[in-house]
Specification:
mainly alpha
Length: 187
C-alpha cells in the first residue's frame, strides 16, 4: 500500500487529536485516570499533570508534522513559526520547572526544525533537520507503544498501543521517504 507524505502527516495529526481527546476526557473525569500512563499513576492530580503536559506536547508537534509532511508551505507560514519558536523556548522553561524530562527531550530535538521553519536557520537545512525530528519521533513513539503494550489496563494494551503503532508506521514512512522537489520550468 502506498500513501502520500501528506496522507501520513494527516494520519499522525488525526491520531494526535484522538490522543489529546483521551487526555482531555481524563482531565474532565469522563475516563478514569488509570487509562493513561500504563495505568500506573498514583492519583488523579498526577494524571492531570501528565495529561496536560502531553496535550501541550502534541499541540506543539502538529505544525511541525504538518511542515515535515508537506501539508504546510513553509514560506507561507514564517510568522507562525516565529511565534512557535518563541512558544518552544517558553515551553522549555516551563518543562524545566515542571521536571518533565521526556517533554524537554521532545521540545529540544524539534527546536532546530522550528528554527528552520521560522527562518532563523537557513532553509536548506530543513530536509536534514526534518529527518532527525521524524526519526526521533519514530523512536519515541516505538517506546511509547512498548509502554502501552506493557500497560496495566486493557485500554492501554489494546486501544492506545494500536494508536501508537499506527503512528510509528506513519513516522517511519515519513522518515524514509524523500521530499519531492517541484521543478519550475525556466522562462
Amino acid at each position: 500500500m502506498k500513501i502520500s507524505r501528506k496522507t501520513a502527516g494527516k494520519g499522525i495529526i488525526a491520531l494526535n487529536i484522538f490522543t489529546m481527546l483521551v487526555f482531555l476526557f481524563v482531565i474532565l473525569e469522563i475516563l478514569p485516570y488509570q487509562f493513561i500512563s500504563g495505568g500506573r499513576l498514583e492519583s488523579f492530580e498526577a494524571a492531570v499533570q501528565t495529561a496536560s503536559t502531553s496535550i501541550v506536547m502534541m499541540i506543539y508537534g502538529i505544525p511541525v508534522v504538518a511542515a515535515a509532511s508537506g501539508l504546510m508551505r513553509i514560506k507561507d507560514y514564517k510568522s507562525l513559526f516565529k511565534g512557535w519558536l518563541f512558544f518552544s523556548l517558553v515551553l522549555i522553561v516551563v518543562l524545566v520547572f515542571e521536571g518533565s524530562i521526556m517533554g524537554l527531550i521532545v521540545v529540544s530535538y524539534s527546536l532546530p526544525l522550528v528554527a528552520v521553519l521560522a527562518g532563523v536557520i537557513d532553509h536548506k537545512q530543513f530536509n536534514r533537520t526534518a529527518k532527525i525530528y521524524l526519526w526521533l519521533s519514530f523512536l519515541f513513539i516505538c517506546l511509547n507503544t512498548l509502554g502501552n503494550l506493557l500497560g496495566a489496563t486493557w485500554f492501554e494494551k489494546i486501544i492506545m498501543s494500536l494508536v501508537t503503532m499506527i503512528q510509528a508506521v506513519l513516522y517511519f514512512y515519513l522518515a524514509t521517504r524523500k521530499r519531492k522537489r517541484k521543478i519550475r520550468p525556466k522562462e
